[in-house]
Amino acid sequence: MIALYGRASVLEAARIALDILRAQIGSGSLEANEFDAAITTLPSVLEKRIKRTVQPSLRPVINATGVIIHTNLGRAPLARAAVERIAEVATGYSNLEFDLEKGERGRRDIHAQNLFQQLLARNGVPTTATVVVNNNAAAVLLALSALAEGGEVVVSRGELVEIGGSFRIPDIMSRSGATLREIGTTNRTRIGDYEKAISERTKLLLRVHRSNFEIVGFTEQPALAELVELGKRRGIPVMEDLGSGALVDLEEYGIADEPNVYASLRTGVSLVTYSGDKLLGGPQAGIASGDPTLVARLRSHPLFRALRVDKMTYAALEATLGAYLREEFDSLPLLHILRASAESVRARCEKVSEKLQVVVGLSVEIVEVRSVIGGGAAPGKTLPSFAVSLAADGVNATELALRLRKGKKPVVARVEDGRVLLDLRTVAEDEDDIVVQAIVDAVKK
Ligand SMILES: *Cc1c(COP(=O)(O)O)cnc(C)c1O
């Protein structure tokens, strides 16, 4: 145990275990046979205690929920190339803020610049700059602070969103020092409402993507192009908080009417903000792309220093963008997951189901399900998929799902109608056998 966990951890655990035993002996609460058992099991009790204390709290899990961008499960899995790049750059020193040409201090924020610029230019937006911060909430805060502090920002009442984890547009707005100018109603806002709200105090017209809800029925929202036209006419920049920020056309992935970064900028939006770890499929980051003079104002704002990202983020982001530039879309796990056909998921479910036939007391079915995009993208939009559906004799579904989560490699599944559902779309192909083993262990327990 000392070889595995170190002397100090073993010593601590041994002292605690012996103290407990001494107290039990002292109070006379142990029978002779119980005492013998306590001594015999002491090593395994010790090991369990040590494992509990030294195990990192952040662990890999298998996502069998079918929610593709699952914020609670760490959002986008990174591409192999991104992970290798992190290892390459982060195990030693790097030119993070060093100009190799001049041999003196350089700028951190030049990283990823070029790659974003090339990618956007290739997709019809020739002149842009991009800045990267810690997450999209930070990008929105920075943009509002740098562009609208002391002035007004016009937002439709239908777009005053809350994203999970207490990101609320009105709160971010007041933090930034800008004043929120709400217009329209929850369900209907017209271009005339924007026009009427504009005054000499107006600094920004803001559009926020309704990334986790839909408004249906009697609704109206001006087209982005109308907003851009109005902004141009009155000399006020339009900013769009895209949230998810896809760098591909999602129509090709079977997801209709979702905005992407290119389309928004091509329409003439001055600045878009988006997350690095949603549909982009990279590391946690907040990205603001658009008009170089606006981006320069974000860069020189004091908050930028507080929200800046680390070398690992740049390393992973540059590798991810490299995959887009080389058009190696399938090397990005997130796009691979989106692209997988329902048929291919079904075939995997069948293999898993076959391997589970030998498990006594387990009923296995394959059912049609819908995978959810999740994570502030494409609200209400789903992809056809298949799941392995389980019911075990003498174990209810909630208990079985709990055992799956508490196994050696935690598997997170859904419970529906008294059965445990595992949507294999979000499970990596090479994890199928681990899932089989986890199910066998959970039923046996
Ligand atoms: C997700 C999202 C955010 C927050 O992004 P984080 O990267 O989680 O900080 C902000 N705005 C919109 C519209 C979003 O969808």
Describe the structure.
This protein has 445 residues and is of the alpha/beta class. The chain has 3 domains: 2-54; 62-70 and 337-444, Aspartate Aminotransferase, domain 1, CATH 3.90.1150.180; 80-331, Aspartate Aminotransferase, domain 2, CATH 3.40.640. Helices cover 42% and strands 18% of the residues. The chain contains 17 helices and 17 strands. The protein has helices at residues 2-5, 7-26, 32-54, 80-90, 113-122, 136-148, 169-176, 191-197, 224-234, 261-267, 292-300, 303-307, 311-325, 333-339, 342-356, 397-405, 432-444, and strands at 62-63, 98-99, 104-105, 129-133, 152-156, 162-163, 167-168, 179-183, 202-208, 238-243, 271-275, 286-290, 362-372, 382-392, 411-412, 414-416, 419-423. Strands 4-12-11-10-9-5-8 form a 7-stranded mixed beta sheet, sandwiched between helices. α5 packs parallel to α13 (311-325) and α6 crosses α11 (292-300). It is globular, with a radius of gyration of 27 Å. It starts with a helix and ends with a helix. The model has no long low-confidence stretch (mean pLDDT 94). Residues 135-137, 140, 163, 167, 208-209, 211, 241, 243-244, 275, 286, 376 line the site of pyridoxal-5'-phosphate.
